[in-house]
Design brief:
The chain is an alpha+beta fold and 238 residues long. It has a domain of 131 residues: Ubiquitin Conjugating Enzyme (Roll), CATH 3.10.110.10. The chain contains 10 helices and 4 strands. The protein is rod-shaped. InterPro entries: GIR2-like, RWD_dom, UBQ-conjugating_enzyme/RWD. It comes from Aegilops tauschii subsp. strangulata. Pfam families: RWD. This is RWD domain-containing protein.
Length: 238
C-alpha cells in the first residue's frame, strides 16, 4: 500500500514539473469521475509548431485523471472533457483509445503516456493541417486522369483516314497533270536496241517526211487561170 502511494506521489511531482501551469488539482465533484480520490485536470490543445499561444485557441480539451488504490497495477480513472470545439463522438472515441492503452501499460506509471497519446490524437483530428490530408486523397486521382482530345485512334479509323488521304493526294496530283497525260495510255519504255529493232525510228522518220510534204503542198496554191494557162501551153508545146 505504501509503495503505491509513494509511486503515485512521485508521478504527480514529475507531471507538475513538466506541465507546470497546465495541470491543476480540481474538486472530485467537477471531475466527472465517480471517486473521492484526488483529481487532476490537464488542458490540451492541438500541437503545432506555428501555433501562436497568444492567439485564440478554437479547440481545447481537458484530460481528467485520478489514481486508484493499486495504481499502476490498476488502470487510472480517466475522463475527457471538451473545453472548446470537441465533438461528443470524438470524445467517446478518444476515451476508448486511452482505456485500451492504459490496459496495455499496467505495472508502470502511465499518465504522461496517455497524455502524449491524447495530444497526438487531438493534433491529427483538429490541428491546422488536419484538413490537408483529405484534399490530397481526392487530388491524387486527378493527376492520373488524362482528358482525351478528339476520338481515340483505332485500326479501323486509321485505315479509313488513310484511304481518304490517298484519294485526296491522287486528286491533287491529277489536277497538276495535263489532260493528255491523264487520257493517253502509257507506253512501255524501250531500250535503245529494242527501239531500233522495232523499226519505230524508220516509221517515225517517214512520218516526219510525209508531214513535211503535206505542209509544203498546203503552202502552194494555184488559181484557176494559172491552171488553165499551164494546161494550154503544155498541150500546145507537145
Amino acid at each position: 500500500m505504501e509503495d503505491y502511494k509513494q509511486e503515485q506521489e512521485m508521478e504527480l511531482e514529475a507531471l507538475q514539473a513538466i506541465l507546470m501551469d497546465d495541470i491543476k488539482e480540481i474538486d472530485p465533484s467537477e471531475s466527472g469521475i465517480d471517486t473521492n480520490s484526488r483529481c487532476f485536470e490537464i488542458l490540451l490543445s492541438p500541437q503545432d509548431d506555428d501555433f501562436d499561444e497568444a492567439a485564440h485557441v478554437p479547440v481545447q480539451m481537458a484530460l481528467v485523471f485520478a489514481h486508484t488504490e493499486k495504481y499502476p497495477d490498476e488502470p487510472p480513472l480517466v475522463n475527457i472533457k471538451s473545453v472548446r470545439g470537441i465533438k461528443p463522438d470524438d470524445l467517446t472515441s478518444l476515451k476508448e483509445k486511452l482505456d485500451q492503452e492504459a490496459t496495455e501499460n499496467l505495472g508502470m506509471a502511465m499518465i504522461y503516456t496517455l497524455l502524449d497519446s491524447a495530444k497526438e490524437w487531438l493534433t491529427e483530428k483538429y490541428g491546422q493541417n488536419a484538413g490537408d490530408e483529405e484534399p490530397d486523397k481526392t487530388e491524387e486521382p486527378a493527376e492520373e486522369v488524362i482528358i482525351p482530345h478528339g476520338e481515340a485512334v483505332t485500326v479501323e479509323s486509321f485505315m479509313a483516314w488513310r484511304e481518304r488521304f490517298e484519294a485526296e493526294l491522287a486528286l491533287q496530283r491529277a489536277k497538276l497533270m495535263p489532260e493528255s497525260a491523264l487520257t493517253a495510255p502509257k507506253e512501255k519504255k524501250l531500250s535503245g536496241r529494242q527501239y531500233f529493232e522495232s523499226g519505230r525510228h524508220i516509221t517515225k522518220g517517214a512520218g516526219t517526211v510525209a508531214e513535211e510534204d503535206e505542209e509544203e503542198e498546203e503552202d502552194i496554191e494555184f488559181d484557176d487561170d494559172f491552171e488553165g494557162k499551164y494546161a494550154t501551153s503544155t498541150f500546145c508545146g507537145y
